[in-house]
Amino acid sequence: MKTIKCLCFYTIEHGNKKGLKAGEIYAYKMKSPVEVEGEPVQILHNHIWQEGPILQKKDAVYYLTYSCGNWMDSTYHLRYALSDNILGPYTEKPDTILKTNDLVKGPGHHFLFKDKDGNDWVVYHGWDVDFTARYPRIDRFYVDEENQRVFSNGPTFTPQPIQNL
Question: What pLDDT sits at residue 29?
Answer without folding.
Answer: 80
